[in-house]
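Contributing new complexes? Match this layout with flavin-adenine dinucleotide.
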Amino acid sequence: MPAFQQSRVPIEELTKEERRRRFDHILFPYTKEEAVAEAQRCLQCAMPYCVQACPITQDCKGYIAQVAKGDFDGAARVTLLGNPLATVLCKSCYHYCEEDCVKKDRGEPIAIRHLKRASLEFGNSSLAYVPMPSRGEKVAVVGGGPAGLMATWELCLRGYSVTLYEEKPFLGGQMETIPKYHLDGDELATDLARFRNFDLKIITGMKAGVDFKPEELLKQGYLAVYLALGASAPGRIKVPGEELPGVFHALPFLLAANKNPESFLGRRNRTTVVIGGGDVAMDAARSCVRFFPGYKTTVLYRRGREDMPATSEESEGSDIEGVEFRWWRAPVRILGTDHVEGVEVQRTELGPPDEKGRRKVITIPGTEEIIPCDTVIIAAGQVADLEGLPAELDLKTPRGWPEGKGEGWATGVEGIFASGNKSIVFAMSAGTKAAEAIDAYIAKKLGREPIPRPDPFGAPEPAQIYPEGYGEPSWVL
Ligand SMILES: Cc1cc2nc3c(=O)[nH]c(=O)nc-3n(C[C@H](O)[C@H](O)[C@H](O)COP(=O)(O)OP(=O)(O)OC[C@H]3O[C@@H](n4cnc5c(N)ncnc54)[C@H](O)[C@@H]3O)c2cc1C
Ligand code: SF4
Ligand code: SF4
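Output block (do not edit by hand):
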């Protein structure tokens, strides 16, 4: 397909009916021929805005060039060079790159995420990363989500000996709650298999602050500690009835939906109200559509459709699958005695501007109505769980996840760093920056220069983190 072609090579999807019944991945992969044709639409821009928009500066321009030539092994290698969670991201990334692709100006952006998938599915993607020889210098990473995993990759490549602590019995963090229609297989295990040559010890089922003290690790020979704890506790809406049987918070609901789906197939739990307007609310609603076919799933949001923070991919997916929306509604109480029977809501509108000029949502008295249901899922954001962690860390949590206030997210305790972020690829970027800060901290302490990221596959030259033509990033962490 010539480069001037403005329409994307179509990506086949499950039909609406199939989507309502099945948790299978919605998008079918490209064939080799389709992938090559889509890649040939790319202009190979001298200034690759796609790369600048990617929080990990993935060289997507580079792997697209390889796919365009039909060299899928080459494409897989380029993909994996800067992206250790590529198998996960090729199906679940919010593809910030595509927003900035120049082809979008006059047509459809290149299907950058889907071409990543083609490069890994058709190319040799079982390569193992090649770390620098381990010097035995110990660093502890706490939290096995994308931020912690990315920092682990960065540090192990540089020859550090990493111990990764995780509270849950499995790694992945919030990625483990992503429904199967986005991540339907062993994507994370596939990615982690490439870590097999690292000097890495994984300890699960250990909660920092409760089962061990992160500050004690520094006395046990660890040179630094990275807390990548995410926002793993569910936010509450604090209305009467929130504790009733039949009320779930989205995070534990979606985790159970993935790990133990049978538990939701009982006689009750069918007609559902989901409270919230973000991606997690959409994931909860779209999961309910699949669990309880034929029963109504309603999303309740206190602002209008255009204000919903959910990505268009998620909100349009919800529309297609038959989720109903009630905008400009706020929950007043959840009704029921021994089980949920409905949600009482009030209409909302925008009130006068506050001192920052922002118009807050206010409820309108006398507009109460009841939405009958037997299940309520609350997707009101997530908050950090700081149980048992010392106040000296002086963490801030304005965006949910805990962060250190210092340079490179250094916390109030010397040698301990903390960060996270809002999506997988942004959390990975945070993991990279934290690993660089940790490396610089240790280098200074040991009287040597920081170690640039080595080539992940063992080539003698350091990795080229910013591909040719890269300018200023179009994102901030
Ligand atoms: C339902 C859902 C769907 C999503 N879908 C997408 C998507 O499609 N695409 C996308 O890009 N992003 C998605 N996200 C967002 C993305 O998953 C998160 O932004 C990302 O996982 C955050 O990474 P993190 O490493 O900062 O934190 P987390 O992923 O939360 O990882 C933190 C880890 O630390 C562990 N931990 C916490 N406290 C302790 C402690 N005291 N001791 C030991 N371990 C601890 C936790 O158990 C967890 O494993 C989704 C999130 C949810 C909830
Ligand atoms: S990781 Fe995400 S943002 Fe980066 S190139 Fe891939 S799809 Fe785009
Ligand atoms: S911005 Fe779009 S057209 Fe340009 S290199 Fe990136 S993917 Fe290709």
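Reviewers usually confirm one structural detail per submission. For this one: DSSP finds 15 helices and 16 strands in the chain.
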